[in-house]
Amino acid sequence: MADYTKHLRLIKPGGNDYYNIDDFNQNSELIDKETEKLNNAVTEIKNGATREKAGIVQYGTTEGKALEGMMLARMFGCVGYGGDIQEAGVKDVNYIYYDRNTRKMYKCLNQNSDVSANVANFIPLDNNSLLDRLENLNTKPNGDIASVTSFRLGFNTSNVLNTSKIKDKKIVYVTVRSDNMHISTQLPKNISRAMLVHGTNARTAIISIEETGFFLYGDITGITGIFLSEYVYA
What we know:
Elements (H helix, E strand, L loop, with lengths): L2 E2 L6 E2 L8 H27 L21 H7 L4 E5 L10 E5 L4 E5 L13 E3 L2 H9 L9 E9 L17 E8 L3 E7 L4 E6 L5 E7 L2 E6 L4 E11 L1
Parallel strand pairs: 3-4
Antiparallel strand pairs: 1-2, 4-5, 5-6, 7-13, 8-9, 8-13, 10-11, 11-12
C-alpha cells in the first residue's frame, strides 16, 4: 500500500508496487505549486526589505539599501570587511573593521586580537581622520626656514661617477645645470630616485639619488654643475 510524505503528501509507492503514471503527475503538480508559492514569498520579502524591518536586508545602490561589506572594503583598498572591532577573535591584516565606540572604520596593520582600536594595530580610514592627517602635513612658509646649506659637487677623475652622502639630510634639493638647461627636484630623506639629464647633442647622464649616496652615470659632457641644498626648518 502506498505511503505519503509528511508535508506535501506526495505519494510514495511501496517496494513491491508498480509506479502509477497518474501518481507521478500528481506529485509533479504538487511540487510545482509549492515551488511557485515559495518563489513568490521570497520575492515579496525581497521587495519589501527596508531598513525599518529588522533582519531583512535588500542590497542596492539607492537610499535605504544595504552595501555589501566586500564593496566597502574595496573602496578603502582592503581585501575584506572583518566586522566590528569589539567582536572577539583574530583581526587580520588589510581587513577593515568598524569601531562602535568611535564610529570609525579602521584598517588592520598587524594581526591581533584587540577589541578596541589600538593605534599600534589599526589606522583610521574615515574622512575626518584622513582630513586631519592631510591638514597636518608640513606647510611651513619660507619664513620658517632656519638655514640653507648648499654645495656644488665636482666630477671625479673618470668623468663618469660622482658621489656625495645625503643619508642624513632632512630636505634636499638637487639642481643639475647643463649648457642649455637645468633641472631641480625636491627629494625627501632616503628616497631612491633617478632622472635623465640632457646636454647638447643629445648627450645623456643618469642621476640616481639613493639612500647611501648621490650618483651620476653616463656621458656628462655639457653638464656644468650639480648642486645639493639642505633646508633646515625652525
